[in-house]
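Re: folding output
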Amino acid sequence: MNTEFIQHPSALYPGGKGAGISLAKPYGGFLSWYHTIVLSIALGVIYSNLPIYAYTLHSALLPKFFFFGLFLLFAPLMLMKSRALGVYLMSPFALWASVLIILNLIHFSSFVIDSSASGIPLINSQMEIRSALILTRIQYIVFAVFLGFAAFASSKQSYRYIFVFLAVFLPCAIILDFVKPGLLHPIDTSGAVLGRAAAMFINPTMAAEAILLVFLLSCAATKMKYRTFLFILLGAGILVTFTRSAIIAWALLWPLLIDRRVLPKSAIIVTSIVLGTGLMFLGAFESYLSSRQDFEGGLANVQARLDFFSNVTLDDDSSQERAEAIHASWNLFLQNPLFGAGAGATQFWPLRGSTHNLLLMLAAEYGILGMGLWIWMAIILWKGEFFENKNLQFAIAFLFVFMSMFTHQMLDSASYWLATFALVAVKKRAVPARSWRVA
């Protein structure tokens, strides 16, 4: 006979030790399952990018409708656990989010003041668009705090199984989008890249980032013997997005996760066979891509990305654009090193895209404080207690540091990053509650 313990959080901030508010068994029965179901639904919606996807298909379905709806589902939990909410607001992630929200509010206020002083109305101007971006960023961060609280106060850990489902569903959806482009969204959808699959994420880079995160989060509820299959499926999904940073991240995670005993040692053999087989058929795969008439117009971009791994060349348009963005954002930081150029500054400059780098974006927009926020988040993720296996905490922190060198959207439309920050940063002290005997 084995005995399994369902763990309950006890809120003991600061420090995690000493007397505090006990959250063990705050309620049971229906309300406990309601908490688990609502949290699972919220995570499924966010990590599937459904708010943005629905808006892409039907402009009347604004993303805020989804977030407002989820907030209403969370409201009873916050009311019933108001004391726990007060404790959570002193947690590392909530404090980090509060600092970022305050910085954004200061920048937003400065726009309003400048508009009043200059006599130029905020309406129908670039200031209005930039202000709207700041307010949207604040709303994403606030929602992530609520999501983090829901995870913190959960008396059940079964909501984590949603990540097992997503770890299978999302890569399969991306592969389907590669095989049948136009099935999940119109090919000419704004943000989509011809030849690069993305499924509900529209943007292939976002799709690759999301499934990397989902895989690591699924390890919290998956036995080791199943993780190799999920890791290979993850690799297939990332490959057809042709996102270089994500492919490199996948390759780096392979030895790291095996060394840290997150993946079994057999993953060395299995994954090597899969990679070897793939390399053998690389020429055939490139011929297949060339034969795809529906990729015409996007084939050059895909081919340049594949050539990167054989020739290590960075002379394509995407690489040149990123190099220009790095130079421009660094100069912007040097011009405003203490407080930055203001939230949203890197969205409204002569270049076509933003920084493609979270650290540089934070430095350019928030100055030294922004760089401090980046370092603080890396530490929070490393010291979080979402995973029982501390090696997985390290893997998430590593992925954040690595991928933030290639993306700037972690605080904006890529809500799955903020959700990951909120979840993985959760600190709990496990307390044995009631036991269930199983044969």
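--- second protein (sequence, then structure) ---
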Amino acid sequence: MLMNDMGDGSRERLSSRTWWNAAMFAGILSAMVALGGVAATVLPGSDIAMRVVSAALAVVGATGAWAALRSYRNRGGKLLALALTCALGSTAALVALRSVA
């Protein structure tokens, strides 16, 4: 039988790994949205309205990346929820805009 709770802090390590994985998921997804928004804003070939919306999504993505970093450091559930909301919401908005355009 496998014994996980041997008094060596396995629950603490599991909690730390869970926070790390959740924060990294939100942070990487937010950073990808932020970089995609910046690229869509700067690269030629888009109209002004699309550039403005892409810039707004880049700001939301940057906010999500910041919240992911802060949530990992502070172990804050509200900040992690904000990071995941920014990451998933801006990704969904970016996909919807790309399919319409």
